[in-house]
TrEMBL record, chain A:
It is a multi-pass membrane protein. This is Dipeptide transport system permease protein DppB. Its main location: membrane. Belongs to the binding-protein-dependent transport system permease family. Keywords: Cell membrane, Membrane, Transmembrane, Transmembrane helix, Transport. The gene is dppB_1. It comes from the Bacteria. InterPro entries: BPD_transp_1_N (IPR045621), MetI-like (IPR000515), MetI-like_sf (IPR035906). The chain crosses the membrane at residues 12-30, 98-121, 133-161, 188-207, 243-268, 288-314. Residues 94-311 form the ABC transmembrane type-1 domain. Pfam families: BPD_transp_1, BPD_transp_1_N. It comes from Methylobacterium isbiliense. It is found in: Cell membrane.
From TrEMBL, chain B:
It comes from Methylobacterium isbiliense. The lineage of its organism: Bacteria, Pseudomonadati, Pseudomonadota, Alphaproteobacteria, Hyphomicrobiales. InterPro entries: Peptide/Ni-bd (IPR030678), SBP_5 (IPR039424), SBP_5_dom (IPR000914). Residues 1-31 form the signal peptide. This is Periplasmic dipeptide transport protein. The gene is dppA_1. It comes from the Bacteria.
TrEMBL record, chain C:
PROSITE patterns: ABC_TM1. PANTHER family: ABC TRANSPORTER PERMEASE PROTEIN, OLIGOPEPTIDE TRANSPORT SYSTEM PERMEASE PROTEIN APPC. Belongs to the binding-protein-dependent transport system permease family. It comes from Methylobacterium isbiliense. The chain crosses the membrane at residues 36-57, 108-133, 145-165, 177-198, 210-230, 236-258, 279-305. It is found in: Cell membrane. The lineage of its organism: Bacteria, Pseudomonadati, Pseudomonadota, Alphaproteobacteria, Hyphomicrobiales. Keywords: Cell membrane, Membrane, Transmembrane, Transmembrane helix, Transport. It is a multi-pass membrane protein. This is Dipeptide transport system permease protein DppC.
């Protein structure tokens, strides 16, 4: 058990090191960093001096160690565009992205489960078929097209919901939140739907499949034979049993929701990390790109690790299977 | 409806405050009169010497002040200098306003003027030409400063409106003595913080997201504006920006995309304020490199041949650009300056569009099948800039010239083509002479760039060079008789046109989208001055 | 008629058997049972044909600036009052025919998609074969890389590859280089699934008698891999490729939409949607609507086909 946890933790560290190496390579070799720091007419001698002061002549391994050390302390250098430390910029934008990701996940979970349960219980109804078809279309439409469609419908044509930004935010210490104002909450609706739609269809399909499977098992038949109400069977037993895999998937998807927020944030001009990243790619702002990569990797690795650990706690079979490995 | 909304909002807020045991700083903001405005780009830097870009300068204008300012009709008005005079032809004397304080509380004195005069002309400043290079500033007393010139210059103060005064003690304290160059990437305190004497104070600046201006309670003068607060947001996407105005999320946007103007006017709460702008959009060609960068013509530069330049001029159907790309919201121009700024502008006519003549000229010059040339174009700077460049690409293609269009965001575009890189073969640029005077055009846009020490020709990116223009420019600078001066200027423009040195396109119309609750003062130089903005609370 | 007799004979001699075998197969039977699959197949075929034939069926070449004329700018579709032939679906602000731009854009999307799939499948199959056959350290290394990569969404990888290449190559790229870059970015984003599938099959196959026999008679590893093991994994690889084609098309469109893909002078469907988005308010809806519909239709058709193929080839579901 302990060995397994250790192994997973070590693997996670390995992954972070690998991603760190890529980030460092971007930082170090994509364009001459000196060029990014000085005016183009800086004399050669001064450039050499800056080179030295940045430690660019040290062995690559030493440089990587220094970069990794700085990164661990949250120092990623300065953005070329904004002339501000990248860590400050990411810190300012993180609340926007995390709040959006949270709302999108909640939306995906609630609607995905509801629709999944419905289409499992009423498998042959017309509405269930419609839901299935809609879910396939939802998977096929690119995220940005969905966002544009929603803006066109709800902002342009109907004028109900805002089309950009976070609305009014309230600052609580280092965190800015849109949850406490009406305009902040309204601004969350369209981006959350856009971002969560893909996950919603995924969860809906999963719930439906799991439900159908569970409903066929013996113990549900047994429960029915015992004369429990349909309602109790469906929600007390069947749904409960489908939720473990659903929540696992939702957890694993949280990471990709954060990454996919890149697109949603661009469509809605949402001032989060994803928009920052897209602007960095457009403007070749390497320090932001490298730091964002590391941050997203960290989020992914942590989630994966947490899910792995939870599994071993919850499911004794896995412990047995994995221990000899 | 609206009271209900406010109630819900405050209920949510108080609930939250209760739950968190916090008093919310946002609560009093409900009563504040807040003006929200959105622009397609960012306020590039808070350092007033970084970038000569209209929107950025205008935003600085709310926070900083200049010795001499310009009123709503662009006429000179006293700013931080209560008055000024010329005791002798080479000496200006400025009497500074007393009891003026910077936002950090330090008093404004002659030392700040002298410091700012040095800083604005230091390497890395984008405003070097705003203050004459040969001028020395002398402190007479704490509130009197002399500007001493080597040669008489009646227009030496014409560009002072864009030269904002910074605090010397503040700059020393925060290691901000040197101007922040536009190309710099290192953090600079002055680029992220502002300390001026103006009617507004910047309380929050999140680059690329938002900037908050608050009323300066200690301002020395009376302010027309009734705003307590102004919040600036960058909204890059055209459709999103318009949607924000239509739904009332913001009170002012720039630009209103041409295609959306009817919609903004049709909406009951909003209107488009449109008037011709002083900015001239034009094309420039690299006429000094021995070989044209990025072209398939090797060993020579086709643009050195006057016939090629004429061919380019004649191949471009400016009327079609005005009518289609600009949807009529532009005035075709024969000159590099807008007609209101030059009384004799009416005597110039744009040479006619003539693609056949263009083809013949190209053949004569030795390019019967045309040639390839890259073109630099911004895609977020002027009205429909990239669309104009695409249209020009099509028009040149029809006379055989293959243009490789490189349309980029303005940050990258300016870094590539401006001093010191001058890395362009063919480009589209827009220019408003900051002195509102033709001398600036003859000197900065059409002056030879050959003397590296002189700021002459700083923005002559293709280095069009005719020594006769330089001579005339120098005469214009000294000439005090208005009529004689205009005749001289006309001679200068005649030479540029005869040389086919530039291809002027048009003056675009200024298009602000404004909520009807808001009163603004559109000025011909397109600057939004917060101190003239009022809003129904 | 012009085909030389022997070739024809070889064709006819060979073809009926393969064709007959196909007609006889479960795959075809399942295809004939599913109306949806048939519709999707027909739609995909039609869209491919449009893409291939774009230069011959378009009113203009939207990539040739000389053919764009401002006089034709902003025309509505033909059924509206100001519509004009031959611009059936209207024109954009440059006088570009929307229908032609959609045809060419579809062509570009499919070229990028197919090339991207080819690159990713070649990388994936090669690494999968090597990992499965070699085992040990090599296997562990390759599969760990795959694990890491799998945690990153493709769009993020593609954006990073794009950004890094631009930084390394100095900012501006011409259109061909951009196209190549996008293909590589997509290729590097989607190889993992192939590698995992192929590796799994190789692990199963390599201990079977015929492989052992091949080894005994002295066939080299590459020969065994390519000639004997590879054919056994074509089914699953084909399914992955179909689904990935749709993903690759979406990825390209998204990159172009985010402004890091193909430029406005050589628009793909994604670029057309990005630029057309500007006209959402002005009533010129056709500039964004038709490219959007084309993209959605293309992806949906391929997805349906992939869905069906996966179910049809999966013995568990039959």
């Amino acid at each position: 058990m302990l060995a397994f946890i250790l192994r997973r933790a070590l693997q996670s560290v390995g992954v972070m090191l690998a991603v760190g190496l890529i980030a460092f390579a971007m930082f170090r070799f994509a364009g001459d960093p000196v060029n990014q720091l000085v005016a183009p007419d800086t004399p050669y001698a001064e450039r050499l001096q800056i080179r030295e002061s940045l430690g660019l002549d040290d062995p690559v391994l030493v440089q990587f160690a220094r970069y990794a050390g700085n990164a661990v302390r949250g120092q990623f250098g300065n953005s070329y565009q904004f002339r501000q430390p990248v860590s400050t910029l990411l810190g300012e934008r993180m609340p926007a992205t995390l709040e959006l990701a949270l709302c999108a996940t909640l939306f995906a979970l609630s609607f995905g489960i509801l629709m999944g349960v419905y289409s499992a219980l009423h498998r042959d109804s017309v509405f269930a078929k419609v839901l299935q078809a809609v879910s396939l279309i939802g998977v096929s439409l690119p995220t940005f097209l969905i966002g544009i469609l929603l803006i066109f419908l709800f902002s342009v044509t109907l004028g109900w919901l805002p089309s950009y930004g976070r609305g009014d935010t309230v600052r609580l210490g280092f965190w800015t939140t849109g949850f406490l104002t009406e305009s902040g909450l309204r601004a969350l609706i369209l981006p959350s739907i856009t971002l969560g739609l893909f996950q919603m269809t995924l969860i809906m399909r999963l719930v439906r499949a799991e439900m159908l499977e569970v409903l066929r098992t013996d113990y549900i038949r047994f429960a029915r034979a015992r004369g429990l109400t349909t309602r109790a069977i469906h929600f007390g037993h069947a749904l409960k049993n489908t939720l473990v895999p659903v929540i696992t998937v939702a957890g694993l998807q949280l990471g990709s929701i954060i990454a996919f927020s890149i697109i949603t944030e661009t469509v809605f001009q949402w001032p989060g990390m994803g928009l920052l990243f897209v602007q960095a790619v457009q403007n070749v702002d390497v320090p932001i790109m490298a730091a964002y990569l590391l941050l997203v990797a960290l989020i992914f690795v942590s989630i994966n690790l947490a899910v792995d650990l939870l599994y071993t706690v919850v499911d004794p079979r896995l412990r047995a299977v994995r221990r000899p490995a | 409806m609206s009271t209900h909304r406010v109630k819900t909002r405050s209920r949510i807020a108080s609930l939250a405050a209760l739950a968190l045991g916090l008093s919310l700083g946002a609560a009093p903001a409900l009563a504040a009169n807040t003006f929200r405005f959105a622009f397609q780009g960012d306020i590039k830097s808070l350092d007033p010497y970084t970038l000569k870009e209209t929107f950025t300068i205008a935003a600085h204008g709310a926070v900083f002040e200049s010795l001499i300012t310009r009123d709503k009709d662009l006429k000179f008005a006293p700013g931080l200098a209560e008055s000024w005079e010329m005791p002798e032809p080479t000496r200006y004397r400025f009497h500074l306003r007393k009891n003026v304080k910077f936002h950090d509380g330090s008093p404004f004195t002659a030392d700040d003027v002298i410091f700012s005069a040095e800083r604005v002309r230091a390497p890395g400043s984008n405003f070097q030409t705003n203050v004459p290079a040969d001028a020395t500033f002398v402190k007479v007393d704490d509130h009197t400063v002399d500007m001493v010139l080597k040669t008489p210059n009646p227009i030496a103060h014409f560009q002072f409106g864009g030269w904002y005064i910074m605090s010397k003690t503040w700059a020393e304290k925060h290691d901000a003595l040197k101007p922040t160059p536009a190309a710099a990437t290192t953090p600079s305190y002055a680029a992220l913080n502002a300390n001026g004497t103006g009617p507004f104070v910047i309380t929050e600046h999140q680059p690329g997201v938002r900037t908050v201006f608050k009323k300066n309670p200690n301002y020395w003068g009376k302010v027309e504006s009734n705003l307590d607060e102004a919040v600036f947001t960058t909204i890059g996407n055209d459709a999103t920006r318009v949607a924000a105005l239509l739904s009332g999320e913001v009170d002012w946007i720039e630009p209103v995309p041409l295609q959306d103007q009817n919609r903004v006017n049709g909406n009951p709460g909003t209107q488009v304020i449109s008037s011709p702008e002083l900015r001239t959009i034009f094309l420039g060609m690299d006429q000094s490199s021995e070989e044209l960068r990025g072209s398939n013509v090797k060993g020579k530069n086709p643009f050195k041949d006057v016939r090629v330049r004429e061919a380019f001029y004649r191949a471009i159907d400016e009327d079609a650009i005005v009518k289609r790309v600009m949807r009529g919201q532009a005035a075709a121009s024969a000159l590099l300056i807008a007609p209101p700024l030059f009384p004799l502008a009416g005597e110039f006519k744009r040479p006619a569009y003539d693609p056949n003549r263009a083809k013949a000229l190209l053949a004569e010059a030795g390019y019967p099948n045309g040639f390839e040339v890259p073109m630099d174009c911004p895609n977020d700077r002027y009205v429909n800039d990239e669309a104009i460049c695409q249209a020009i690409t099509s028009m040149l293609a029809r006379v055989g010239v293959k243009v490789a269009l490189n349309a980029q965001p303005k940050a990258k575009y300016f870094a590539k083509i401006l001093k010191p890189n001058y890395d362009t073969s063919f480009y589209l640029l827009g220019w408003t002479p900051s002195s509102q005077d033709s001398h600036n055009i003859l000197y900065e846009i059409a002056g030879c760039r050959n003397d590296k020490a002189s700021p002459r020709g700083t923005t002559n990116l293709g280095n069009y060079c005719n020594p006769k223009v330089d001579e005339i420019a120098d005469k214009v600078e000294r000439e005090t008789d208005q009529e004689a001066r205009n005749v001289l200027i006309k001679q200068g423009y005649d030479i540029i046109q005869a040389d086919w040195g530039y291809i002027p396109l048009h003056q675009q119309a200024l298009a602000w989208g404004v909520s009807k609750k808001v009163k603004v003062a559109p000025r011909a130089d397109n600057q939004l001055m917060l101190y003239w903005v009022s809003k129904e609370p | 008629m012009a085909i030389p007799a022997p070739a024809l004979r070889a064709e006819t001699a060979h073809r009926p058997s393969a064709f007959a075998r196909f007609l006889d197969s479960d795959l075809f039977a399942s295809f004939r049972r599913s109306k949806l699959a048939m519709a999707a197949f027909a739609a995909t075929l039609l869209l491919f044909a449009v893409a291939v034939l774009a230069p011959w069926i378009s009113a203009q070449n939207p990539y040739d600036p000389a053919q764009l004329d401002l006089i034709n700018a902003n025309l509505p579709p033909i059924w509206e009052a100001e519509g004009q032939a031959p611009f059936w679906l209207g024109t954009d602000d440059q006088g570009r025919d929307v229908l032609s731009a959609v045809f060419y854009g579809m062509r570009l999307s499919l070229v990028v998609g197919v090339l991207g799939v080819l690159v990713s499948s070649s990388i994936g199959i090669t690494l999968g074969l090597i990992a499965g056959y070699a085992g040990g350290m090599v296997d562990t290394a390759i599969m760990r890389i795959a694990d890491v990569q799998l945690t990153f969404p493709a769009i993020l990888i593609a954006l990073i590859v794009d950004g890094v290449a631009k930084a390394a190559l100095g900012g501006h790229l011409d259109t061909d280089a951009t196209l190549a870059l996008i293909v590589v970015a997509i290729g590097l984003s989607f190889w993992v699934q192939y590698a995992r599938t192929v590796r799994g099959s190789v692990m199963v196959e390599k201990n079977k008698d015929y492989v052992q026999a091949g080894r005994l008679i002295g066939l080299s590893a590459p020969v065994i891999l390519v000639r004997h093991i590879l054919p056994n994994v074509t089914g699953p690889v084909f399914v992955i490729a179909t689904i990935n084609l749709a993903l690759a098309i979406i990825t390209e469109a998204t990159l172009s939409f985010l402004g890091t893909g193909l430029p406005e002078t050589m628009p793909s469907l994604g670029t057309l949607i990005r630029t057309g988005n500007r006209f959402l308010f002005s009533g010129e809806w056709w500039i964004v609507a038709f490219p959007g519909l084309a993209l959605a239709g293309l992806v949906l058709a391929i997805n349906l086909l992939g869905d069906w193929l996966r179910d049809a080839l999966n013995p568990k579901l039959q």
